[in-house]
Amino acid sequence: MRISDIHISPVAVPDPPLLNAAGLHAPYALRLIIEIVSADGLSGWGEIPGSEATRAALHLAAERIIGMDPWQLNRIAATLESLANPDERGATPWDQRTWVHVQSAIEVACYDLMGKSVGRPVVDLLGGAVRERVPFAAYLFYKHEGAGGEFGFGRDESVSGWFGARQEAALDPEGIVAQARAMIAHYGFKSIKLKGGAFEPQVEVESILALREAFGPDVPLRLDPNAIWRVDSAIQAGKQLEGVLEYYEDPVRGQANMATVARAVDIPLATNMCTTAFADLPGSIAHQSEAIILSDHHFWGGFRASLDLARFCAVFGRGMSMHSNSHLGISLAAMAQLAAAVPNLTYDCDTHYPWQDGYDLLVEPLPFEDGAVGLPSAPGLGIEVDRDKLAALRRNYLACGLTERDDEIEMQKVQPGWTFQSTRW
Ligand code: GKR
Ligand code: MG
């Protein structure tokens, strides 16, 4: 098998005005879609967060791997490593490294090709399924009114159900509970994650307590302030949430601070910010900074690296969960294929998908039933990309004028003078 062509498409998908520690989501979330075409006419697909730096790196990588065999992943990885520049995760809630994303996009597309060439789903190439259905969590956000994209701020009164509720503002505990009810009614999620870091810690504690009151102790709850709290505030908030949270995600910045909170509060700590690369693992052991690591094939460098992370978690007694950013169905399929293959990925995975639902580029988006995605039976990732939808999302990219994610600039549009602070409260 030989790679004969690679197409890279930047796309922009409508995204509502969601609040987080770094500011506000723009009206469009940016993604990069890669299609690797084999000489025998098969297409393998990958999807990663969009940015111009990543796009440039992906083009560079693509030039070098054309002609290679998609089954030769070690050789492809070595080629990519030889091109990679050192880059940093950064202080934002999302991972800003370029090359791990490039490696992931290419590896996932190669797996899709490999699966299609032998008529087997990706999960079988990862060792086979340990679960047929992958459960996800309801991912709640404080938000301004509006649906994103061409709707921007403001509401379309004609839309109902989750898609109507998705446009509502949620700026207090009541708004968060209403958002949870609508999302759970539509998707059937069995656990809840609240994106924090948007308001003072006590407001977010009240929202978690309101969720507990509304949904009871059988619905696991998580809170993620994206490392924007001081150690003392995180301990004070955490003390009120002992016995309430399933896990406490990145309340503070850095492994040493996480370890201090972990010692003081009786809730497992989780991270997708302080332990995010293999080079961070010795520090994780030395500090005992978290009990749970959120995997993410997009920024651990693909499926095989995620399986390596799973082995680390098993050996060193870490739980494993899964992180997400705003995404479309190619990423959702890849997340499901990976999660189905990892025995110790025992927490409901994160997904932003409800916020992007209805704008997907798949011919048939993967359905959620009872909060879970069933593994598609078709070979590879098990999905088919609708080229007209892809072209429309690409036109959105060209029209929207965004080239990088910058939540600070978006926030300044609603709160002039607002600036990101790496530790705020
Ligand atoms: O989409 O605003 C967001 C999230 O804050 C995202 O950027 C984070 O990477 O979901 C993420 C997280 O768990 O930290
Ligand atoms: Mg997180």
Description:
- The chain is of the alpha/beta class.
- It has 2 domains: 3-119 and 387-399, Enolase-like, domain 1 (2-Layer Sandwich), CATH 3.30.390; 125-374, Enolase-like C-terminal domain (TIM Barrel, Alpha-Beta Barrel), CATH 3.20.20.120.
- 40% of the residues lie in helices and 16% in strands.
- The protein has a 7-stranded parallel sheet.
- Helix 1 crosses helix 2, helix 2 (73-83) runs antiparallel to helix 3 and helix 7 (201-215) packs parallel to helix 8 (231-241).
- The structure holds D-glucarate and magnesium ion (MG).
- D-glucarate is lined by residues 18, 20, 93-94, 195, 224, 226, 272, 323-326.
Bound small molecules, by name, code or SMILES, are: D-glucarate, magnesium ion
The named CATH superfamily of the largest domain: Enolase-like C-terminal domain
CA gyration radius, whole angstroms: 20 Å
Assign the structural class, choosing from mainly alpha, mainly beta, alpha/beta, alpha+beta, or little secondary structure: alpha/beta
Rounded to the nearest angstrom, the distance between the terminal CA atoms is: 54 Å
Number of helices: 16
Could you estimate the helical fraction of the residues in percent?
Answer: 25-40%
State the domain count. Answer: 2
Report on the biggest sheet.
7 strands, parallel
